[in-house]
Design a protein that fits this description.
Blueprint (H helix, E strand, L loop, with lengths): L2 E7 H11 L8 E10 L3 E10 L6 E4 L1 E4 L1 H14 L2 E7 L10 H18 L3 E6 L5 E8 L7 E5 L2 E5 L3 E5 L14 H7 L1 H9 L1 E5 L3 H12 L4 E5 L23 H12 L6 E5 L6 H7 L4 E4 L4 H13 L4 E10 L6 E11 L14 H9 L5 H9 L10 H20 L9 E5 L4 E5 L29 H19 L1
Parallel strand pairs: 1-3, 1-10, 6-7, 12-13, 12-15, 13-14, 15-16
Antiparallel strand pairs: 2-3, 2-6, 4-5, 7-8, 8-9, 10-11, 16-17, 17-18, 18-19
């Protein structure tokens, strides 16, 4: 069963809230457009343009009504842009809003015309006087020609430097255990813990950092976790990954799922696993079902894909990486540094932060990055791919990434953006850079909130991932025969 959600930037939210929540206390309305973001388990509408009423477009009289010319103008804009239409109005009450009979009649009456013109379902939204949103899509019934079903959204997200979410209590109730989370709740309160428990968090890459992030989130009461990784547990993973010796040969997602179930403090834990790369369609589509993504990968192509998701689909990404420097014989460590950063709307992207290069992402897509003879030539030209890491470094980076996430969602003392953080192990110092911006010509700034209309396909065939799954399947079949 597919879930439904809405997301908008804080700029769009402010524009809508300023218009809809009137100082005289009367209700108001307007139209907007949205682009779809279709995931494996969720359909999201991304608001992108507000269509404010002109003179004579509507009548405000305590309640509010609109004239047909306003709907016609909004439909023409949506048709021209090939996007969906949103009808928004306000209620003078706080919190998630229900619908009056007049509201239901107005939206259900519009739904057929909207679908006919845009080929997308009408999105209805209501804001309370506290800025909370509710939302529902009106989809054509498969069996009755003239019937349109109201499908409530589970959440409405507003993304600025902070991620704010209004949850539908009936579809996404909080899930936490006071006795197991007593000390956690004492840090930020029950309401915050309720909202944390309802977030849908994705972890991409389940090596050393990703496995520790998963453990921290599970112990912190996160109830909905998605794990994306195509690889298998190997013996070399035991010194830096939260897995057991008995997990060798299993998929990392299954091994880490078991770890999460052991560590989880939520009374209702839901872990979704995906044995695909984020660079494959299956992994990409599942990632779009999340509210926040943790990037625990060390290669350029997956970082490029996550960068795309952060801007086009407005899903913030918490990213990090470790660099260990050794002497030429790898017998002595010279230094070690690790970075953590949150990327997405109103923040610099991973490419502009220097965390990957497009040319190397293209190299990985072509498969040449897994060709030893080719990579030897790349080293001679100055390219170096590093995988050195140890558990204490991973634990520190995982902690920094989770702290970035807490700033983003909780905004303690009103601080939600701490910028890029870099820790220098040898000298024990941490640098902080809040002022970085994307380059003026940055591609990702041009696709903000474009969702499925961005016109770019970033996923594709991933031979290494396919081979890993095939080897795992072969090993499992062989062990069954024996």
């Amino acid at each position: 069963m597919k879930r439904y959600s809405v997301i908008m930037t804080d700029e769009v939210h402010e524009q809508l809230f300023t218009h809809l929540v009137r100082k005289d206390g009367q209700e108001d309305l307007c139209f907007a457009t949205y682009v779809p973001s279709v995931a494996t388990k969720r359909f999201t509408g991304i608001l992108n343009e507000v269509i404010l009423p002109e003179k004579q477009d509507r009548e405000v009289h305590g309640n509010v009504s609109f004239n047909s010319i306003y709907l016609e103008r909004a439909l023409k804009i949506a048709k021209r842009k090939k996007v969906g239409l949103v009808f928004l109005h306000s209620h003078p009450h706080p919190g998630w809003q229900g619908m009056s009979m007049d509201d239901i009649i107005a939206e259900s009456t519009m739904a057929p015309a909207v679908r006919s013109v845009t080929s997308l379902p009408l999105l209805g939204m209501t804001t309370g006087d506290d800025g909370a949103w509710s939302a529902r899509f009106w989809k054509k019934n498969k069996f009755e020609k003239r019937k349109y079903d109201r499908l409530w959204c589970e959440s409405v997200r507003v993304l600025g430097t902070k991620l704010s979410i209004t949850f539908n209590d009936e579809l996404l109730p909080p899930s936490f255990d006071v006795n197991k989370q007593l000390r956690t709740i004492s840090a930020w309160g029950g309401k915050t813990q309720e909202d944390l428990s309802r977030l849908r968090i994705g972890i991409v890459g389940l090596g050393s950092v990703g496995s520790i992030v998963a453990d921290i989130l599970a112990r912190s009461g996160i109830s909905n976790i998605t794990l994306i990784d195509f690889d298998s547990v190997e013996e070399k993973n035991l010194d830096r990954t939260n897995v057991l010796k008995s997990d060798i040969g299993r998929s990392k997602v299954d091994a880490i799922k078991d770890m999460i179930m052991r560590s989880a403090t939520s009374p209702s834990i839901d872990v979704t696993t995906c044995e695909y790369s984020i660079c494959e369609e299956e992994g990409f589509q599942l990632a779009l079902s999340c509210d926040v993504l943790f990037s625990c990968v060390d290669r350029p192509w997956p970082r490029q894909v996550l960068n795309f998701i952060a801007y086009a689909h407005l899903i913030p990404v918490i990213d990090g990486g470790i660099m260990v420097r050794t002497n030429k014989t790898n017998t002595k460590m010279i230094g070690a540094d690790w970075k953590a950063q949150t990327i997405g709307y109103n923040r610099p992207c991973l490419e502009c932060l220097g965390q990957y290069k497009t040319e190397y992402a293209n190299l990985e897509k072509s498969g040449l990055m897994d060709d030893p003879s080719y990579m030897k030539g790349m080293e001679d030209s100055g390219f170096k791919e590093t995988h050195e890491n140890v558990y204490p470094f991973s634990a520190n980076l995982a902690s920094l990434e989770v702290l970035q996430f807490l700033n983003l969602f909780i905004s303690p003392s009103g601080i939600s953006n701490v910028g890029q953080q870099m820790y220098h192990f040898v000298i024990g110092s941490i640098e902080q850079d809040k002022l970085q911006k994307c380059e003026p010509s940055c591609f990702f700034q041009a696709i903000i909130a474009m969702g499925d209309c961005a016109g770019v396909t970033v996923f594709g065939e991933h031979e290494t991932a396919k081979n890993s799954r095939a080897m795992r399947a072969y090993s499992n079949d062989k062990s069954l025969v024996e």
